[in-house]
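Practice problem: predict the structure.
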Amino acid sequence: MPAISIQIISISAERLSETLPPQIQFQVNLSVPSGQPFTREHRVIIPFTFTINSIPPVVQYSIKGRAVLVPHKGRGEEKSLKEIVDKKKIPQQVVQAIFINVIAEVIVLSRSLGVPPPIPPIQLPQPRKTTREQHYSPVQ
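Answer:
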């Protein structure tokens, strides 16, 4: 797998409401590629767009950028990079790298805007309730 770097070109974040409802749902959309991947100086550049909108409309985010793939010398990765440009077949590792980087940016932006981040809250396991109680009596 070639080395992957993520470059952010544009960030837009806006808080749309002063009050926060008790529950917010998020619509997340990652478009990879958002344009035609291209080659420059033996590197493959894949543009992407990442948007998040909340329901109800409290906050919206838009991040545009590009993933830059640099092949390692002597590993024969040029063929797979050519396939990315020709067929727009983006490897899962690239999509994951993009998502991890942009969601980190959105979490920081959420803090600055004073809204909850668009990640599901961690649910701690609830203690199990037994349907019948067990009584133990001392052995005599």
